[in-house]
Design brief:
The structure is a single chain. This protein is mainly alpha-helical and about 1000 residues long. A two-stranded antiparallel sheet has the order 1-2. Helix 12 runs parallel beside helix 17 and helix 14 crosses helix 18.
């Protein structure tokens, strides 16, 4: 039996076309022959483009021999230009791409006749195919223009484009769209140039702007039509051009702006009608995913998003925003309607809760997201007036939804959901403004909207119910406890039911936000049912939604801390199971560990939890080669167990895991394992302290094991990633085992220097700078001795280790993150500078960057010079960094303070003079910083959330009030060492000098 030959769709198409060429019908034969011609020509044009890329220019990175000769280039360029009027759009596009590729090498110097040819082709109204080809080619060329060609091109090109755009009777919408897109590309380039050549670019645009604004007026004043993607494309390009005009030539655009306000509003309002029928109701075609022959999107959504972007630019403009201020309520009113869930979203979200969650979290590119951005800008730009507009428009839309509901409409819920969506998304802005404007209260309104439909059938109105849950969570601080209790009860019931996916997502969001504040009595009565439902969800959830369920479980565990011990035996094994099943997923496994940590912190839970974890983790760590993929995450689990644990638990963990952790650091080549093992070992020392040395029976052996681990991690040949957390580990050694480490300080310093010199990761070098800073403090009051120690230790490529360490420190200080780290390093600089050690004056370090004045970077300036820096004496750089720290603190404290704060308690000095100084440093001030203010400054650092909460735990330096520390230093230096102070200050920037002057002009 013969085997059946399978053919794919392309082969089937080819066979059908070949068969059709033999058909007696002339029309059918012609169609088949044309199709085959297109199919053969298109790949040829693509191959030509690839050929140009490889063989045209010997200086190109992709060049391959043989090169195209000069004579061949002339022939190819000529043939391509004469083919631009091909009637087949796709072939024409491919040829245009080939022309643009050659132009990137040859134009204008080696191909001066390109632009005249294209302009002649454009101006030939008898050859519209040629017009299309020339426009397509110019559109590609305009994306790669530079500041030398644009000024010459625009005066010639723009009149031609205007002729096309203003002649709809001759040129179709596609050609007019391409013409406007070329104007947009050129205007964008002019906008980039205006940052350097503002006068020249403004003069270039001035004579042409009015004609374009008039033409755009004509296009926008006509109502938007349904199912007309070609018209949407024209308007999209118009809006992009207008956006560029306003952004880059606002002084010119403002004079003409009034002429397009009316047409723009007409476009906005009529677009909403089309959008509701097409996208929201699904009655008409929104042409989602539609593209023209050049690959440009022409859907209704892309047009609406561009419309919002232009409105966003207008609202954000100080002068243009005033033009629409009187109609801001109408603008908000219509915008809320654009936020309605579309018919397409209903179909997707009804079956895919993951997509609903992703669209909620990721602020995807959509009309809803763009509309929200506009509403946020309205609140930010118009303040109380914008707040009132949002609330008033929301009330009207809510009322309309209720009227539709009473009339029996099946889609009444859409407007209410959109209204809640808008308000909840602005939850951070609206309550703040409410405090300033007591007459605008939204609390009662929100209460009504949430409470009214909290019992609505979740299967009939799933998206409204989901939005009510999410909104209640967002506005929990403004809603009465009684209502929140109803929300919690409804959410608990929802997660236990067979509810639509979106509703369960909303219920989990509400629970994760509201549960921590829920009354204990309520939680006690529903605790078992809640945990049962959530653990059931764990088995049902996909990988995408599992993290939300775990997040909700964590919130529930926090809310039930006092009663958690009774159900710990039930939920801990389940969470450990989830952790083990998803150990390769860092997001889910981390979330599971956080749930376990919450359980661990509950009264009576840590001992049973440790007894469950250790038997599972011990074998993994002791035989890592048999536990591929589990070792690194198991170390994280152990580190979590160690944090803030009772000494009995720490000892139990030590007995099972300590030796294994040491072996992993000494033997493993896996960077993740080494990083997590380093953090685990740091936790052992931080929590076990001196007692840890005695647990193994031989304290000397344990100490040698710790030093061996340090030696491996500081090995300069080890990859930087493997050593990433060595800084935290060494810090714990010198903080908690100081007497044991004292005899090893010289060797430790030498090893730290070598590790820093070979480190390829900046954060690793920064963490080692912290160690040196902490050693500076440990050497006080004899800091000179530590400097001498560094001077006595050689450093490759530098005079000594002190020269190298200080050179690196000066580069990295501004990049150091974390409250503790900033306190330690900044105060250490004070101690070093206060020594006035002779070696300080012998060192020059990197100063400030030297700004380039060569204009903007364009294709004509592709090879940029490396960043240049000044060189300054070390003490001067240290003084500047300390002044920068003062500036940072002043800015942080003044942020959010008004002019009537405690800063106005001035006892000495000229208040107005100080305000001027502060303004010059970009810092707001209201007068004298008292000790209370200095305490507030300190809290800025104390309350900062460190990534690693083991760093600095138990270190007395955490108690430093950095603001007061700096004030005392500058005061003593200024009044006790005036000449030195003046010498160090003379080359500081104006901002730095003013910041120091502010704190010196006060009496504390």
């Amino acid at each position: 039996m013969s085997k059946k030959i399978e053919i794919d769709t392309d082969q089937e198409w080819l066979l059908n076309c070949l068969t059709a060429t033999l058909d007696p019908s002339h029309d059918l034969r012609s169609f088949a022959e044309t199709s085959l011609l297109q199919a053969s020509l298109q790949p040829a044009a693509v191959l030509l483009k690839q050929f140009i890329k490889k063989h045209w220019d010997e200086g190109d990175d992709y060049f391959q021999h043989p090169p195209v000769t000069a004579a061949e280039k002339v022939i190819i360029r000529s043939l391509l230009l004469t083919s631009l009027d091909d009637s087949h759009r796709k072939i024409c596009t491919a040829i245009s791409m080939a022309v643009a590729s050659i132009a990137s090498y040859d134009w204008p110097d080696d191909w001066p006749d390109l632009l005249p040819f294209l302009l002649n082709l454009i101006n030939n109204q008898n050859n519209l195919n040629g017009v299309h080809g020339a426009l397509r080619c110019l559109a590609l060329l305009c994306t790669d223009l530079d500041d030398t060609t644009v000024p010459k091109l625009i005066p010639v090109l723009f009149p031609c484009m205007h002729t096309i755009v203003s002649s709809p009777q001759t040129y179709d919408k596609y050609l007019r769209t391409k013409a406007i897109s070329i104007v947009y590309s050129c205007t964008s380039m002019l906008g980039d140039m205006s940052m350097v050549y503002k006068t020249e670019t403004t003069d270039l645009m001035r004579p042409m702007l009015k004609a374009w604004m008039d033409q755009f007026h004509i296009i926008l004043e006509q109502p938007v039509q349904s199912e007309d993607p070609a018209d949407w494309s024209v308007r999209t390009e118009v809006l992009k051009c207008l956006n560029q005009f306003v952004l880059n030539f606002h002084s010119l655009a403002e004079n003409e702006f009034a002429s397009i306000v009316g047409p723009l509003w007409q476009t906005f309002v009529s677009t909403l009608r089309v959008y509701v029928r097409s996208s929201v109701e699904g009655v008409e075609d929104p042409h989602d995913g539609s593209y023209d022959s050049d690959g440009s999107e022409k859907s209704l959504d892309s047009f609406v998003i561009q419309l919002f972007e232009f409105l966003l630019t207008i609202i954000g403009s100080a002068r243009l925003g005033k033009v629409v201020a009187n109609n801001v309520k109408e603008l908000v009113y219509h915008t809320i309607a654009f936020l309605q869930i579309t018919d397409k979203q209903v179909h997707i979200w009804s079956t895919d809760g993951n997509q609903f969650m992703a669209d909620e979290d990721d602020a995807t590119y959509s009309c809803r997201t763009s509309g929200l951005l506009l509403l946020e800008e309205i609140v930010n730009s118009f303040g109380e007036e914008g707040n009132e507009a949002i609330v008033d428009a929301a009330k009207i839309r809510y009322s309309e939804s209720q009227q539709e509901k009473a009339a029996g409409s099946a889609v009444w819920w859409r407007l209410k959901e959109a209204t809640l969506y808008a308000l909840a998304s602005l939850s951070e802005q609206l309550p703040e403004l409410e405090e300033e404007a007591s007459e605008v209260s939204i609390a009662n309104f929100l209460e009504q909207m949430v409470a009214e439909d909290i019992g609505t059938d979740v299967n009939q109105y799933p998206f409204l119910c989901a939005r009510i849950f999410i909104s209640a969570a967002k506005f929990s601080s403004m809603i009465k406890n009684e209502t929140l209790e109803h929300v919690v009860s409804a959410a608990i019931q929802t997660v236990s039911m067979n509810s639509p996916p979106a509703v369960k997502v909303g219920a989990c969001r509400a629970l994760s936000e509201i549960l921590p504040e829920t009354k204990k009595e309520i939680m006690q009565s529903q605790m078992m049912g809640l945990f049962s439902s959530l653990t059931d969800l764990l088995y049902q959830a996909s990988d995408e939604s599992l993290h939300l369920v775990l997040e909700t479980l964590e919130a529930a565990a926090k809310a039930c801390q006092d009663d958690l011990a009774s159900i710990e035996p039930i939920i801990s094994p389940i969470i450990l199971n989830v952790w083990a099943s998803h150990v390769s997923d860092p997001f889910i496994s981390t979330e599971a560990v956080e749930v376990l940590e919450t359980i661990k912190n509950a009264p009576g839970c840590i001992f049973p939890l440790a007894s469950r974890i250790l038997p599972q983790i011990g074998p993994i760590l002791n035989k890592p080669q048999q536990s591929d993929g589990f070792v690194a995450e198991s170390l994280d689990l152990i580190t979590m167990l160690l944090k803030n644990a009772p000494i009995d638990v720490i000892k139990a963990v030590y007995d099972v895991c300590f030796d294994a952790v040491i072996r992993i650091i000494l033997q493993s080549d896996d960077h993740s394992e080494m990083q997590n093992a380093t953090e685990c070992l740091a936790a052992f020392i931080s929590q076990g302290k001196q007692e840890l040395l005695s647990w193994g029976g031989d304290s000397g052996f344990t100490m040698r094991s710790l030093l061996d681990a340090a030696s491996r991690l500081l090995d300069p040949s080890l990859d930087s990633s493997g050593s990433l957390f060595v800084g935290s580990y060494i810090l714990q050694l010198i903080l908690h085992l100081p007497s044991q480490m004292q005899q090893h300080i010289r060797d430790l310093v030498a090893a730290l220097v070598k590790r820093m010199q070979s480190a390829q990761i900046e954060s690793l070098r920064s963490s080692l700078i912290l160690i040196f800073a902490r050693m500076v403090h440990m050497s006080a009051p004899n800091v000179e001795n530590f400097i001498n120690l560094l001077v006595s230790i050689p450093a490759e490529g530098h005079g000594n280790s002190f020269v190298y360490v200080m050179s690196e420190w000066m580069k990295l200080q501004g990049e150091i993150q974390g409250a503790y780290q900033i306190k330690v390093t900044t105060s250490a600089l004070v101690l070093l500078l206060s020594t006035k050690h002779a070696e300080l004056g012998n060192i020059n370090v990197q100063g400030r960057p030297i700004e380039s004045r060569s204009g903007i970077s364009t294709r004509s300036r592709t090879k940029s010079t490396p960043q240049q820096w000044t060189v300054v004496p070390l003490p001067e750089k240290m003084m500047g960094l300390l002044a920068d720290a003062v500036i940072e603190i002043l800015e942080q404290v003044s942020y959010g303070q008004d002019e009537d704060s405690d800063w106005e308690e001035v006892h000495n000095g000229d208040m107005d003079s100080d305000k001027d100084l502060v303004r010059s440093t970009h810092v707001k001030s209201s007068g004298k910083p008292t000790y209370e203010n200095l305490e507030a400054m300190a809290k800025l650092y104390e309350n900062e959330d460190d990534n690693d909460d083991l760093v600095g735990v138990g270190d007395p330096l955490n108690e430093i009030n950095l603001a007061k520390y700096l004030v005392d230093f500058f005061s003593k230096l200024c009044h006790g060492e005036k000449q030195l102070f003046d010498n160090l200050s003379q080359n500081l920037t104006t901002d730095q000098q003013n910041a120091i002057r502010i704190i010196l002009n006060r009496k504390f």
